[in-house]
Task: inverse folding
C-alpha cells in the first residue's frame, strides 16, 4: 500500500513537471530567437524561410527531386550509398551472415570454430573481450585466466573468481521488455552449445557473456524456468533501479520533490 501511495504521488507530480518543462522550452526558444536576431544585426527571424531550409535538408526531405542535370544532389547520393552500397556495407552484411551461421554451428571434434566473445559485468558496468573463443571448449577452461587474474577494477576485492560467479546469456523475452537470462554451467556448456539455444541474443554477430557475483544474482534475479535455469529481474530490483535513476538525475537538488521521494524510497527498498 505504501508503494502504491508513492507511485501515485509521482504521477500527480508529473503534470507540474511537464508544465515546467514546457515553460522552460518556450523561454529557451525565445532567448535563442533573440540571440539569432542580434547576431544578424537586428534582422528578424523568418520562420517560413527556416521551414523551407529544413524541408530541403536531406534528413527531412519528403520527396526526392533531381537537379537540372537529372542527378540527385551530392548529399542525397551520399545517403543512398550509405544505405544501399553493398561494398560500403560489406562488413555489416558479413556480420549478419555470421549471426545465422552461429545459430546453426557444428561443434564436432574434427572442425573447430573460433569466435570473438564480449564479457559483460552488469553489476559494475565493466566489459572485457576475448578475441578468439573456441566453440568446443568449456566455459570453465576458456575463462580460467579471466578469473585467476582479476581486472584492475576488481583487484582489491577479487569478487569475480570462479567459485563466486554465475555465467549467463541473454534470451529474447516474449514481451520484449523484461530482459531474461539463462544460466551457463561452466563445466558443462561450451560456446557452441550455448549458441544453439533458442532465442539466444547475439548483437552485431558477437555473442555477449554476462558474469554476476552469486550474492548479487540471488538478490536481484527470479527463477522462472527451473529446468532450463532461466531467470528474470525481480520486481523489487526494477523498482529500486527506477528510483536510483531518479535520484541520480536530481542529486544535489535537496528541495526537489523527486529527489526527496527517490531518497525516501531507496531507504525503504
Result:
Amino acid at each position: 500500500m505504501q508503494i502504491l501511495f508513492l507511485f501515485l504521488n509521482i504521477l500527480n507530480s508529473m503534470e507540474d513537471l511537464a508544465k515546467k518543462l514546457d515553460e522552460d522550452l518556450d523561454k529557451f526558444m525565445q532567448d535563442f530567437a533573440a540571440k539569432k536576431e542580434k547576431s544578424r544585426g537586428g534582422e528578424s527571424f523568418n520562420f517560413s524561410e527556416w521551414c523551407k531550409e529544413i524541408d530541403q535538408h536531406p534528413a527531412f526531405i519528403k520527396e526526392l527531386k533531381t537537379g537540372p542535370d537529372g542527378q540527385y544532389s551530392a548529399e542525397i547520393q551520399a545517403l543512398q550509398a550509405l544505405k544501399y552500397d553493398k561494398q560500403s556495407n560489406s562488413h555489416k552484411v558479413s556480420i549478419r551472415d555470421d549471426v545465422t551461421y552461429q545459430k546453426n554451428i557444428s561443434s564436432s571434434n574434427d572442425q573447430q570454430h573460433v569466435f570473438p566473445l564480449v564479457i559483460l559485468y552488469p553489476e559494475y558496468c565493466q566489459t572485457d573481450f576475448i578475441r578468439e573463443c573456441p566453440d568446443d571448449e568449456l566455459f570453465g577452461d576458456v575463462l580460467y585466466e579471466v578469473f585467476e587474474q582479476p581486472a584492475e577494477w576488481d583487484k582489491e576485492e577479487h569478487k569475480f573468481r570462479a567459485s563466486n560467479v554465475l555465467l549467463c546469456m541473454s534470451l529474447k523475452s516474449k514481451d520484449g521488455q523484461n530482459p531474461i537470462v539463462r544460466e551457463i554451467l561452466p563445466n558443462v556448456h561450451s560456446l557452441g552449445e550455448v549458441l544453439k539455444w533458442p532465442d539466444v541474443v547475439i548483437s552485431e554477430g558477437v555473442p555477449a557473456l554476462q558474469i554476476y557475483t552469486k550474492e548479487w544474482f540471488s538478490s536481484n534475479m527470479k527463477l522462472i524456468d527451473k529446468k532450463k535455469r532461466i531467470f528474470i529481474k525481480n520486481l523489487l530490483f526494477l523498482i529500486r533501479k527506477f528510483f536510483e535513476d531518479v535520484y541520480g538525475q536530481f542529486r544535489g537538488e535537496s528541495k526537489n520533490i523527486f529527489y526527496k521521494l527517490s531518497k525516501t524510497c531507496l531507504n525503504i527498498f
Notes: The first helix runs from residue 2 to 39. The CA atoms of residues 5 and 64 lie 53 Å apart. Residues 83-108 have pLDDT under 50 and may be disordered.
